[in-house]
Amino acid sequence: MKYTLLSFPAAAVAIGLLAGSPASAQVVTNAAQVQSGTYDVEPGHTQVGFSVLHFGFTNYLGVFSNVSGTLSLDAKSPASSKLSVTIPVSSVQTTSAKLDDELKSDQWFDATKFPNATFESTSVRITGRNDAIVTGNLTLHGVTKSETLKVHFIGAGVNALDKKYTTGFEATGTIKRSDFGVKMYVPYVSDDVQLRIAGAFEKQG
Question: Which parts of the sequence belong to the Lipid/polyisoprenoid-binding YceI-like domain (predicted)?
Fold first, then answer.
């Protein structure tokens, strides 16, 4: 992963946000106050994290990045909202370069044959002021199955750095990788895969 030091002005803005400056006051934390419209995934701050139980010893973590897609957000009728995302499988990254290459191989995700995973929402069920259950079709490794995510709204407002209206969510869920034909080392490496997703979206138009 690449890390870039913030310039002094940018760092000052970031510190101000954390300290509760006027800029942070513009962020709303009630989903009903979000601006409706069409949003694009902001890939720089969107991550699809996953973890598996490795031989019963550790919950081993990895992440996919460079996500793209759109969110059609209807604040007045949230159940009408739609989400479509594409995840490049070759973006998979762990703390081991050797394992990264292995995961891209045909023993695991087979990124050459199946370069993308996709998720297309089919329903949104509101469960609380800032919470929803989103069901959709997940396509991975050439297999499509209906999966469910618990989604929590975090906040929305104008990004103090790039001045773009941004909204963010966290999603969690569990899938079985064998359902998608990714069976290597099951059960020594758990079949259950825990997902934790940070989703950032920028309003278009």
Answer: 38-202
Distances (CA, A) of 7 to 10, 11, 13, 161: 5, 6, 10, 12
Taking residue 139's Cβ as centre, other Cβ atoms within 10 Å add up to 18
- Interval 128-160: pLDDT, tens: 999 999 999 999 999 999 999 999 999 999 999
Q: Is 142 left (phi over 0), alpha (psi -120 to 50) or beta?
A: left
Burial class (CB in 10 A: 0-12, 13-18, 19+), 95: exposed
124 occurs within a structural domain:
yes
Per-residue pLDDT reduced to its tens digit, 179-198:
999 999 999 999 999 999 99
Residue type at 70? Answer: T
Which residues span the domain enclosing 122?
29-203
Domain count along the chain: 1
With vertex at residue 138, the alpha carbon angle to CA 39 and CA 169, rounded to the nearest 5 degrees, is 40
Asked if residue 133 is part of any domain, the answer here is yes
Question: How far apart (Å, rounded) are the C-alpha atoms in residues 140 and 181?
Answer: 9
- Determine the residue type at 96: S
Which CATH number covers residue 125?
A: 2.40.128.110
